[in-house]
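Today's session is about reading a structure prediction critically. Students often jump straight to the picture, but the first step is always the sequence itself: look for stretches that repeat, for charged clusters, for runs of hydrophobic residues. Only then move on to the predicted structure, which in these notes is written as discrete structure tokens rather than atom positions. Here is the chain we will use throughout the hour.
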Amino acid sequence: MGVGAVATVVGAALVVAEPFGSGGAATVITVVGGPVVFLVGNSIAVRAETGRVSRSRIAAIIGLAVVALIGSVLPALVLAALAFAILLLLALGASGWFKPPSMSVED
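Below is the predicted structure for this chain, in token form.
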């Protein structure tokens, strides 16, 4: 997971250096690959601890892979924004944001 975090920081530095340039291979690999490596490592750790595999993390990895496929034709800033949006949806889903409120009729 540490390698994924470091790669993500390098990707952020590449985006800040040239935000409107096309995302080259290094930019795509670090901006998208960093979070993927982190999520894979996190999924392995959670699987070892609880025996469960998080479907939301798998969906985020697939979404990031799709972004990586089109990443070389996008500006670096758009690439980073798409990766951020996927990770934001993952965080909101993990926090219970998308769950409907429970209805209790005991009152």
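Discussion point for the tutorial: The chain has a mean pLDDT of 88.
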